[in-house]
Amino acid sequence: MSDTISPLTLTRLAPEHLFRLGCSLGQHLPSQGRVVIAQDARLSSDLITASLRSGLLAAGQNVILLGVVPLPALRFVVSSFQADIGIMIGAPNTSLAITQLRLLDASGQTHSFPAEVPASSPLAEPLGKAVRLDDAVGRYVEHCKQQLGHSAHLSQLHIVVDGANGACAEAAPLLLEELAGRVTRLGCRPDGRNINDGVGLGHPERVQTTLQAKQADYGLVLDALGSASLLYHSQWGWLELNGAAEGDGLLTGVRGILAHLSQQRAHSRG
């Protein structure tokens, strides 16, 4: 499922404005609903999360906080917890100066934010509660392994992975290190300021040159939200990715490697 509705680009990061945005969203949801919030690694994400959370709690919504996880992980948690809505804070391929909010439901469908943000709203009764899901990355990695099945044998491979210093910087190498023989990390050390800085889909040449220097087999480049990817092979160059796991760059990339290996084996037998 691809995002068919444009995300909300934040032009104001003032906590009071974000609080009112959270209130407005909460008032459009069923009373005592469940909202999941995920974020990328930018420094402002903590402020945005805290402000939206406060507004949602004031509107009587219960909030589950995931911390830094990719967009596909948010989709997975929203679905498995049967939440009313999920909010992703971040942007896939833009500069750090641009922050966006994506809104999606349990089926993965994107939604628009409320058009009007009230100046003030009364507190709901009862107020909502907030909890943190500390193992969200681990849950997503296990979900990916289940989706890939027992045929995901990559133990003979050396893979270079570029996490764009974004939301997939932890999950992507964790999954690949469980599947592959060796993994070289690029763009997997976010510091809050370096998202897409010389890495990610805007700089695929980093994976290409690193793969050649390390004599690796495949290179996987992810966007900052983990929703799209590119795949490079040491001999065949950039490979086409299509069909599988639309909207999940990590799953699409691993399935692309498996499909290419299968094609190579079939070609060698023929």
Can you offer a commentary on this structure?
The chain is of the alpha/beta class and 270 residues long. The chain has 2 domains: 8-134, 3-Layer(aba) Sandwich (Alpha-D-Glucose-1,6-Bisphosphate, Chain A, domain 3); 138-269, Alpha-D-Glucose-1,6-Bisphosphate, subunit A, domain 3 (Alpha-D-Glucose-1,6-Bisphosphate, Chain A, domain 3). Helices cover 34% and strands 22% of the residues. The chain is built from 7 helices and 12 strands. It has helices at 15-27, 44-58, 71-80, 136-148, 171-179, 205-214, 249-269, and strands spanning 8-9, 34-39, 62-68, 85-90, 100-104, 110-111, 130-132, 154-162, 180-186, 218-222, 229-233, 237-239. Strands 1, 2, 3, 4, 5, 6 and 7 form a 7-stranded mixed β-sheet that branches. Strands 9-8-10-11-12 form a 5-stranded mixed β-sheet, sandwiched between helices. Strand 5 and strand 6 (110-111) form a beta hairpin. Helix 1 packs across helix 2 and helix 3 crosses helix 4. The longest helix is centred in the C-terminal third of the chain and has 21 residues, at 249-269. The two termini are 36 Å apart. The mean pLDDT is 90.
